């Protein structure tokens, strides 16, 4: 299968827009995943976001508990509150992770998707850094959606006309070391097998033994390639539905901590981009019935929440 690397520089400077769109189209058809460089997001911002969130994760549980929320909230998702592998109805065990979650906090009326972000008082520097990161992720996500439209030969705003006041969220996932959480239970992963739910996902990850795997068309699990300068990009179920399965919403998972690296401790920054909550999504060839962007996403999120 292969997860290709695409340099977006030619898109942004105007020297290779058609070539970039064609390469993205090919990657999404074959893999559903790609790596992108030339995205314009400073490495310093990515590193600083990870550094500051690590400060929070290092706090004792009793200091984090006041920020505890459930799926869809803004704050700290403790261990054992999400089982991502249950999205399609399987009885998967809880994920081996904890999460700080932020997201869309203004612009829409649905309180499920638009809530005030919560920034831990213990890390006062975090708010401006995360606010800047979210802004840049939204800009990059809209640019990717524009590339997608060009790849289809459609008007450039085919997708972004439905992201005027979108919902989105960023999960900062902490995958603790084996020496902290102990061996995984049967069928347990840092994140269980799943597909993403929305339009496009932008992942900034750390490389590790217990890292990201992607399932090929043949059903084989492969380690995703890593480039420290690149974002990992994939589409979600709503986008695959929108383009009538031209592109793959690909199953993926994050492996459990491995005995060969007992002190491996990773943090991933995962930005999930959706549509306006009242958007009506119609597949290109009509093979799927029309759905509401907000309703579709809410049902998916409720499926993975424990309790």
Automatic annotation (TrEMBL):
It comes from Lentzea aerocolonigenes. This is Oxidoreductase. The keyword Ubl conjugation does not apply. Keywords: Antibiotic biosynthesis, Iron, Metal-binding, Oxidoreductase. Residues 165-275 form the Fe2OG dioxygenase domain. SUPFAM superfamilies: Clavaminate synthase-like. One of its GO terms (molecular function) is metal ion binding. Belongs to the iron/ascorbate-dependent oxidoreductase family. PANTHER family: 2-OXOGLUTARATE (2OG) AND FE(II)-DEPENDENT OXYGENASE SUPERFAMILY PROTEIN-RELATED. Coiled coil: none annotated. InterPro entries: DIOX_N, IPNS-like_FE2OG_OXY, IPNS-like_sf, Iron_ascorbate_oxido_reductase, Oxoglu/Fe-dep_dioxygenase_dom. GO terms for biological process: antibiotic biosynthetic process.
